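Re: [ENG-882] Designed sequences occasionally contain unexpected residues at chain ends

Forwarding the minimal case from QA. Structure tokens:
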């Protein structure tokens, strides 16, 4: 049964938010130990501290909002939403080359430091990460997603677990569906959560397989699914004279600083940055959803609320599982 989000809209009353809980129980049995306003008694200012710190960090570095949103994908998809991507050290998820370009860690650690002053040993890094990603979307004009909290932090982080669980930018629709399905997420969730690419930026080396070097050393388009004028813009920004591992391009060429449904309009215009974006238009199962979301931002926001909530409870640790880390970058 799919989650119904009409009672979990951003303008919901507290009573309506409580209606979300039995719906969440349909996703995972472990969600029974999560609750809205979990920290109301133990750390009542927790969510406000997260929101304010995210806003403050973004005022000096707007790019951090896209980084925080990306970070939750790389956490939840590997071992569940339990903060293992935050742990530093050799052989950890964070050390894997697939996570080399992740950012936003300092913001998470800053939030944790403040919370440890006011509520020591209370708020998990897993909850901080999920809330910070939620607040990043809100800060850019996206929907406010009501989220249950009470996650605990994982104690294991292994680099070898990263690659089999994250989406690579050259995946086919079938490969993406398989990974999403393994996390309990649907084809609709795949298309909706791909909408995260309406914000953020990417290094040139993440999409350079769509081009090749000609005999003169200039980039040449080889992916016919890409709009020619957009391809030329990308080739100019990712000139062969620049380092593809450091040069960045905005994911959304139209409204990169706003969380909206422009991403789907870009796909209709053949302006998806990654191959994984473009292939959504090549499969009937995903194209139909893209077309709906491109024409209805309210529908996108409603479905984002549902899909983000579902992602945020993948593999959560609750009760006596895991721990509450004192520092997000190291186990206790």
């Amino acid at each position: 049964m799919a989650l119904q989000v009409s009672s979990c809209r951003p303008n919901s009353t507290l009573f309506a938010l409580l209606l979300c809980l039995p719906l969440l129980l349909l996703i995972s049995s472990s969600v029974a130990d999560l609750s809205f306003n979990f920290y109301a008694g133990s750390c009542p200012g927790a969510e406000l501290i997260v929101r304010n710190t995210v806003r403050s960090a973004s005022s000096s570095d707007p790019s951090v909002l896209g980084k925080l949103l990306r970070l939750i994908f790389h956490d939840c998809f590997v071992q569940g939403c339990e903060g293992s991507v935050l742990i530093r050290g050799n052989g950890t998820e964070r050390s894997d080359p697939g996570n080399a370009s992740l950012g936003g860690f300092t913001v998470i650690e800053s939030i944790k430091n403040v919370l440890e002053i006011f509520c020591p040993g209370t708020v998990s890094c897993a909850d901080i990460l999920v809330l910070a990603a939620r607040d990043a979307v809100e800060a850019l004009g996206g929907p406010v997603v009501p989220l249950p909290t009470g996650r605990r932090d994982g104690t294991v982080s292994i680099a070898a677990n990263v690659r089999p669980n994250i989406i690579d930018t050259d995946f086919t629709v079938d490969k993406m569906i398989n990974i999403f399905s393994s996390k309990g997420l649907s084809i609709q969730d795949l298309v909706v959560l791909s909408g995260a690419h309406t914000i953020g930026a990417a290094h040139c080396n993440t999409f350079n397989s769509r081009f090749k070097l000609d005999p003169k050393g200039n980039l040449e388009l080889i992916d016919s699914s890409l709009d020619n004028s957009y391809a030329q813009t990308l080739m100019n920004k990712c000139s062969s004279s620049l380092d593809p591992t450091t040069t960045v391009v905005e994911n959304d060429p139209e409204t990169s600083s706003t969380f909206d449904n422009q991403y789907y309009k870009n796909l209709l215009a053949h302006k998806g940055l990654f191959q994984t974006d473009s292939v959504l238009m090549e499969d009937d199962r995903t194209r139909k959803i893209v077309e709906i979301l491109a024409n209805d931002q309210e529908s996108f926001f409603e479905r984002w609320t549902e899909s983000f909530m579902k992602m945020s409870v993948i593999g959560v640790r609750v009760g006596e599982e895991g721990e509450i880390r004192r520092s997000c970058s190291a186990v206790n």
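QA comment: On inspection the terminal residues look reasonable. The longest strand covers residues 201-203. Proposing we downgrade this to a documentation issue.
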